[in-house]
């Protein structure tokens, strides 16, 4: 079974939701047969790379909140994160463009380091003091820490086209699948879970998707020469 | 869309079938949105690693054929391979255990080199003179040629448990999906194609699976605290 998770590094509910999902997955009996893939999504794709703002200022402006309301929202997120054992700085975080991080996540995917990198990016953004935005050296440090090759990371950061199509393709696919927000979890392209739902909801989704894996419909040709001696002979399973 | 291909290096129809599938994929308009994953299958899992036999001898014994019949089968395969532009030695190939090759393919998957490695293994087995069986140095050479790290490859070959569970899990899954032979192609866990069918059959399967991608069923919780300011807000798509 495959679970695809659309998320953004700048999305605190994605950070919390990933931990909730992982708690459900750890308790799922068939967890060894579940493959997790991270897909790109930008909450704020129109923001210029050098347009970095404090989160509280951005929230107040975007949603017309008072700073006190924005602070209360962050405090709530801090409590939700703490309940999952995650560190979360409720003050003085930055908000900015995440396109380069998504491009690096696609590089990481090719090297089997995607989960390691997204976890380190989340931690850096939500728990550490130094901003992850508009700071290539910071991204190099994080990506190398996740096991990527420094020269390759610098190459991707220096070439804005590298993995750009892959990021855009993920974003198009989210829209096609009807995602109305992130985090957005898709199980075997059949079930969706929107938002950082409680672990119990993920448990239910895993169980349901697992139980309803449907038999395949075979597509074939009448009398094609497709198999032969020791071609398609399958020995009895042991 | 995802296509999973169960196959074995020792399976000539898998070698031919992969080329036919790739011809169909190259002509498929949404090919950039198709991800291909190789899954493990052993035609002859009970064979000891050092039990290497000429293919013609194995076929004659396994199917009670005369050597002339076995040779005619190989000649047919050689013609089918040639029609796909593949080299194929119809005489003096070896047959043996492929478990270590499948373990290496799982290592390669983690580094994004799976397709490169399977292609080189097929070529080595079907087109080159030197046997790929019971010869670790040969496998090291092929795997390093596919871009894997030599020390890592040697480490996997030296430890029979490395990626063994992954190979067995693939094989169990093939049985669960109802595979009755290899190659076995699975599209989005919905459609199956068994055998090295003509490229037209793969074209039809790709088109059908693409057209019938079903909308997701959302699983959710009533009033959970799953989103909030800048959590699940999705900007209008551009």
TrEMBL record, chains A, B:
Q: Which organism is it from?
A: Streptomyces chromofuscus
| Xref: InterPro entries | DSBA-like_thioredoxin_dom, Thioredoxin-like_sf
Q: Return the CDD domains for the record.
A: DsbA_FrnE
Q: Which GO terms describe its molecular function?
A: oxidoreductase activity
PANTHER family recorded for this chain? GLUTATHIONE S-TRANSFERASE KAPPA, THIOREDOXIN SUPERFAMILY PROTEIN
Highest taxon in the source lineage: Bacteria
What name has this protein been given in UniProt?
A: DsbA family oxidoreductase
The residues covered by the DSBA-like thioredoxin domain are 3-206
Q: Which residues form the signal peptide?
A: none
